[in-house]
C-alpha cells in the first residue's frame, strides 16, 4: 500500500477521496464530461449527469451505474433558465443537496470576425458563457446550504492565449468563463466555496473533432500545427482532463481557488 509523502493518504483512500460528495455535471453526455462522470463516480461521488441530449446523458449514466457508481442522468439546456433549474432541482431531490459543480458543456465554431453573423456569436456565448453562468447561479445556493463546496469550470487554452484558429466567438466565451470563475472564487471564498478553471489544450473529443472540421479545407493540417506546438507532441485523452477535475473537487486541492489550470501538454509554455 503506497503512502503519499505529503499527506499520508493511502492509495486505497485516494480512490474514494470523493466519497459522500454530490456533484452536478453539465455536458456529461460525451467527451470530457463523460470521462468526468466516470472518474468522479469511481472516486465515490454521486453524480448528476446532464446534457442537452437527454439520450446521451442517460447512456452515460447507465454506463456509470453499471460500473457501480451512484448517478442520475437528465436533460439540461445550459442556456435556458428553466431547463437548468429543473435539472438542478432533480439532482437535489435525488441526492439531498450538492457539494460540487462541474461545467463541461461547450461548443465551438470558426469564422473570421468580419464575416461572423450575430446568430453565430450569440449561439456560442449562450452555450459557453451563459451556459456556465446559469448552472453556477442555480447551484451555488445549494453549495451554501452545504456550508461550502467546489466548482470546476471548463475553459480552454483560449481562456489564456489567442489560439489564432479563427475562433473569435469561442475565444471570447472561454476568456469570459475564466473571469467568471475568478469572480466566483473571490466572492464566495469566505463562505467555503472554491472555484477553479480547467483550461485544456488539444483533447480527442467530439467537440475538438467538430472544431477541427470547421478549420477550413485542411483540418488535419490545423491539428498537426497545434500538436507541433504542444511540448508533449500529442492530444490528450478525456480521462486525463477528468483526473484534474477530480483533484480540483477533492480536499487535495483545498488551498486552490481562482486558479487557471493549463492542462495543455505544454502548449501555452511554447
TrEMBL record:
GO terms for molecular function: 3-oxoacyl-[acyl-carrier-protein] reductase (NADPH) activity. Its EC number is 1.1.1.100. Signal peptide: none annotated. Keywords: Oxidoreductase. Belongs to the short-chain dehydrogenases/reductases (SDR) family. Gene3D superfamilies: NAD(P)-binding Rossmann-like Domain. This is 3-oxoacyl-[acyl-carrier protein] reductase. InterPro entries: NAD(P)-bd_dom_sf (IPR036291), SDR_fam (IPR002347), TAT_signal (IPR006311). It is an enzyme of class 1 (oxidoreductase).
Amino acid at each position: 500500500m503506497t503512502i503519499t509523502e505529503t499527506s499520508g493518504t493511502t492509495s486505497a483512500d485516494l480512490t474514494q477521496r470523493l466519497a459522500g460528495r454530490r456533484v452536478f455535471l453539465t455536458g456529461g453526455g460525451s467527451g470530457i464530461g463523460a470521462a468526468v462522470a466516470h472518474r468522479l463516480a469511481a472516486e465515490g461521488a454521486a453524480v448528476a449527469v446532464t446534457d442537452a441530449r437527454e439520450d446521451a446523458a442517460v447512456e452515460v449514466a447507465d454506463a456509470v451505474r453499471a460500473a457501480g457508481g451512484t448517478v442520475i442522468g437528465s436533460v439540461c439546456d445550459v442556456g435556458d433558465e428553466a431547463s437548468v433549474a429543473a435539472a438542478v432541482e432533480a439532482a437535489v431531490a435525488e441526492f439531498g443537496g450538492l457539494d460540487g459543480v462541474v461545467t463541461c458543456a461547450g461548443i465551438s465554431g470558426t469564422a473570421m470576425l468580419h464575416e461572423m453573423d450575430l446568430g453565430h456569436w450569440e449561439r456560442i456565448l449562450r452555450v459557453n458563457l451563459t451556459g456556465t453562468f446559469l448552472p453556477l447561479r442555480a447551484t451555488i445556493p445549494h453549495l451554501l446550504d452545504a456550508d461550502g463546496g467546489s466548482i470546476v469550470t471548463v475553459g480552454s487554452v483560449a481562456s489564456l492565449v489567442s489560439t489564432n484558429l479563427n475562433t473569435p466567438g469561442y475565444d471570447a466565451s472561454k476568456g469570459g468563463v475564466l473571469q467568471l470563475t475568478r469572480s466566483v472564487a473571490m466572492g464566495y471564498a469566505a463562505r467555503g466555496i472554491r472555484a477553479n478553471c480547467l483550461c485544456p489544450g488539444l483533447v480527442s473529443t467530439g467537440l475538438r473533432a467538430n472544431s477541427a472540421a470547421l478549420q477550413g479545407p485542411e483540418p488535419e493540417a490545423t491539428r498537426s500545427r497545434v500538436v507541433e506546438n504542444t511540448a508533449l507532441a500529442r492530444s490528450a485523452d478525456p480521462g486525463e482532463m477528468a483526473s484534474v477535475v477530480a483533484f480540483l473537487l477533492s480536499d487535495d486541492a483545498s488551498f486552490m481557488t481562482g486558479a487557471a489550470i493549463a492542462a495543455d501538454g505544454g502548449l501555452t509554455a511554447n
